[in-house]
Amino acid sequence: MSIVHPNDLTGPDAYVCAQGGCRICLECLMHQHEGLVHTVLRRQAHGGVTYEDLLQEGRIGLWQAVLHFDPHRGVAFSTYAWAAIVHRVWRAVKQSSRPQGWLPVPEPVNPLEMAEERVWWAEMHVALLEAVSRLPQRLRQVIVAAYGLDGEPPRTLVAIGRRFGVTGEMARYWRNNGLVLLRLPAFSGRLRQLCDQDSRTAYLRMQALNRAWLRQRRGRRR
What percent of the chain has pLDDT over 90? Predict the structure, then answer.
């Protein structure tokens, strides 16, 4: 005997159902968006943490995103979940660099901390969308497609190039130009603050990445 679920497991109602305690919807959404976790891990520094440990942390971030996502706010779930996964992974990497000692006894879940997390996610969404929306149109379209910020799976550079009638290498060129701008404080200052990436070390790393790309770009023009 098979059970037919009353909701579309890929639609907005699935999130509401999962948040209401439906295990079927929760597992379906986790499986559907598992690729986001692997994409984040491929693009983030791992520090001294193993891929398997960070994969688990990323899945926890995805699970939290499913439970807190509001499908009626007009924000793509991939945008919402991406920030939550990155936040969870960054925190794990940061904690791994601290001196190791006795593990603290886990404390009960604090409702105030949960509320603060929800506020952080909401602010992150707004900051991310504002940063990307300030890019020139072509670069914005490429960044959105490359990172799946429109709710679709991230597209390859070849697929993006095909969409615009150019090579994948040209799509890479546009993507990197977009990332150069997004690393600038004028575009992503608030986003960096929320991600704890506004330190002097973080800005120096950003400048090094931008200089490396600009040198490479100048070399290709010769």
Answer: 10
